Backbone:
């Protein structure tokens, strides 16, 4: 019964969150009102500091926060961004080109030890040490063929072509983006990709969810080196996960490490190695 009720309420709840507000936030704030009133009275009675006296014009209600956890350590972004940052650090990457990943997550994680060239279709009205911003589209990257040694693109391709971020509507947007990432990656180079995986479908205009094999096939010309998975529970990362485990998810996160194979060395080349 409870499961059926939850399913019936899911769509109205998601619609309310998308168009108006999160009902849980309203409930939490309402529940916090008695605590706010009680704490206000206690503070007024006990305070003797003129510098921090109560002023009605400076009241800023936030007592609903007492019902929140101490922090968020679950879900796609938390684990995905840490995973990618660890890969960048452990591989000794010091220069990275990122396409549209979270600035206040993954990019911020790596900036202390790695300079980042960041591309996004939207403007970035800020200057951050170690961060070079380039306005551009993942479907038409402003880079030469085979020119970038280390690329990252986390939770981006599932949105491309849906118009959500002001990009042109294109049902093939995800494959167009994949081709561009393959084009600019240098032979021997590395691509870190994160994207939703599970039962393949379109959730317009939010995102696509890919079968993991669909994601791999979109990146023809690259070799899959590693696949990890954040499942529906979002509590951690399963390394060396199977595609079948990903297919059991409703909305998991697939973490792919791709490399671009080097052209086969000619017999008269002396076996020169390909370097990223």
Residues:
């Amino acid at each position: 019964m409870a499961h059926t009720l939850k399913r019936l309420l899911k769509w109205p709840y998601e619609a309310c969150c998308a168009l108006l507000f999160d009902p849980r936030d309203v409930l939490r704030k309402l529940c916090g009102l008695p605590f706010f009133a009680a704490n206000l009275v206690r503070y007024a009675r006990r305070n003797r500091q003129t510098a921090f006296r109560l002023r009605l014009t400076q009241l800023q209600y936030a007592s609903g926060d007492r019902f929140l956890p101490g922090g968020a350590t679950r879900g796609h972004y938390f684990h995905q961004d840490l995973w990618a940052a660890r890969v960048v650090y452990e591989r000794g990457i010091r220069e990275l080109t990122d396409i549209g990943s979270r600035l206040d997550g993954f990019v911020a994680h790596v900036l202390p030890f790695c300079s980042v060239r960041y591309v996004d279709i939207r403007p970035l009205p800020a200057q951050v040490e170690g961060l070079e911003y380039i306005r551009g589209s993942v479907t038409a990257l402003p880079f030469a063929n085979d020119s970038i040694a280390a690329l990252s693109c986390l939770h981006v391709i599932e949105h491309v072509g849906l118009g959500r971020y002001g990009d042109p509507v294109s049902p093939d947007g995800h494959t167009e983006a994949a081709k561009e990432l393959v084009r600019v990656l240098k032979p021997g180079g590395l691509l870190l990709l994160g994207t939703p995986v599970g039962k393949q479908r379109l959730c317009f205009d939010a995102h696509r969810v890919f079968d993991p094999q669909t994601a791999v096939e979109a990146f023809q010309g690259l070799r899959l080196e590693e696949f990890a998975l954040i499942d529906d529970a979002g509590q951690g990362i399963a390394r060396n996960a199977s595609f079948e485990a990903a297919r059991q998810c409703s909305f998991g996160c697939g973490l792919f490490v791709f490399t671009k194979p080097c052209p086969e060395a000619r017999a008269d080349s002396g076996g020169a190695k390909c370097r990223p």
Strands lie at 95-99, 115-120, 131-135, 148-154, 185-197, 201-203, 207-209, 223-230, 252-259. Confidence is low (pLDDT under 50) at residues 265-272.
